[in-house]
Specification:
The chain is an alpha/beta fold. It has 14 helices and 16 strands. The strands form three sheets. Strands 1-16-15-11-10-9-7-8 form an eight-stranded mixed β-sheet, with helices on both faces. Strands 3-2-4-5-6 form a five-stranded parallel β-sheet, with helices on both faces. The chain has a three-stranded antiparallel β-sheet with strand order 12-13-14, with no helix packed on it. Strand 15 and strand 16 form a beta hairpin. Helix 9 packs across helix 10.
């Protein structure tokens, strides 16, 4: 199975939203879903833009068919710049809006962790559906496995393919530090030999120099594999710079935040080919899954010029969970009723893809797949 790389870059989020510009005005009866995902941060914008697109496509489909009991459901996206403090501030503003019935698709691991620590969801009796990461605590309803599970999968893959000397590199923002720590601990537990580590800051005026320094640090250790715990463009730039070092032939691995098309575009085909990418969502062209077939159909109908993407599929699936919870919440849904509805969604099938939620256990998918960028830039699995 393979996935041909798209031939055009993803537009800015305002261009996506303009697909449905004539329907964007909010009505008094609209039900709102609050979303925080940065469409401007350099390391997050491509994935966040696709995430918002997935929600937008599915909600538009539902609304054109009459919404839920005649009420339209709209996504309210706010941009935190992947800043944890800003995410807290924006979350509080969404919670203050009585029309926001649930929170969905948040992307910013430290910010989400802080939301949990502050009990913002429990204290305000509001659910968070399908955050980007696995957060199995009260009022969190995950869809995907976490970045920790992805990192562990990559470490096992490196070990099983006889990689004797492994390097770890991470970016010092979002999920980077926590997943890096987990990867170090996991490597020790499973017997993977980590010979070098490096981290880098992501300030726009310093990121390129910091990446170069991190690449040189790892190169000096002569690794035969490097696992990149880096989001978005940082991963592409690191791969390009590392390939220029004396150890540049090492096998590269990275997380599902990487987009194969952008990888090839930024790093260059020669630097991107052979990179293994873990995937927390189904393959967007896997026609064996009913949810993927539905996603493909509605993307062609509502966003025909946009290529398939793991993050737009994730947004689409998150929207399906949210809409089902609102339906189950009855004719006068409230935040508390949505939580109660989610807690009844045991073995809910999104389309050959089950999730299971109850008051005691909230379990999304635990499946992590591996894909590889081929010699022509195509993503294979």
């Amino acid at each position: 199975m393979f996935w041909n790389a798209p031939h055009k870059p993803m537009p800015a989020v305002f261009a996506i939203v303009s697909i449905f510009a004539c329907q964007t005005a909010l009505a008094a009866s609209d039900i709102l879903l609050g979303n925080i995902a940065s469409t401007t941060n350099v390391t997050a914008r491509d994935n966040c833009t696709n995430l918002v697109l997935g929600y937008t496509v599915y909600l538009e489909h539902v609304n054109r068919r009459g919404g839920v009991r005649g009420r339209k459901i709209k996504l309210v996206n706010k941009d935190d710049g992947v800043n944890p403090a800003k995410m807290i501030e924006l979350t509080e503003s969404l919670i203050a809006d009585k029309d926001v019935i649930a929170l969905v698709g948040f992307l910013n691991t430290p910010g989400i962790v802080e939301i949990g620590k502050r009990n913002l969801l429990v204290d305000n009796k509001i659910a968070m559906i399908a955050p980007i990461g696995a957060f199995n605590t009260t009022n969190f309803y995950p869809l995907r496995p976490g970045y920790n599970e992805e990192a562990e999968k990559l470490l096992h893959e490196a070990l099983s393919t006889q990689k004797k000397r492994i390097g770890l590199v991470y970016f010092n923002q979002a999920f980077g530090p926590s997943v890096f720590k987990f990867a170090q601990e996991t490597a020790k537990r499973i017997g993977a030999n980590v010979v070098a580590t490096a981290g880098f800051e992501t300030a726009p005026d310093k990121i390129d120099a910091n990446i170069a320094a991190a690449a040189e640090t790892l190169s000096k250790a002569n690794p035969d594999a490097v696992i990149m715990i880096i989001g978005g463009i940082g991963a592409y730039k690191f791969a390009k710079r590392f390939r220029e070092t004396e150890s540049g032939s090492a096998q590269l691995y990275t997380l599902s935040t990487a987009d194969s098309f952008q990888f090839v575009k930024v790093a260059g085909l020669n630097n991107a080919r052979g990179v293994v990418i873990s995937q927390a969502m189904p393959y967007p062209k896997d026609n064996k899954l009913a949810v993927v077939r539905e996603y493909q159909k509605l993307m062609k109908q509502y966003a025909p010029n946009q290529p398939p993407h793991f993050f737009s599929l994730e947004g689409f699936m998150g929207a399906k969970i949210a809409v089902e919870a609102i339906r189950r919440a009855g004719p006068n849904p409230t935040r508390a009723k949505v939580i109660a509805a989610l807690n009844t969604m045991k073995n809910f099938d999104l389309g050959n893809f089950p999730v299971s939620y109850s008051a005691a256990q909230r379990t999304g998918s635990k499946r992590v797949d591996l894909t590889i960028i081929g010699k022509d830039g195509t993503l294979y699995r």
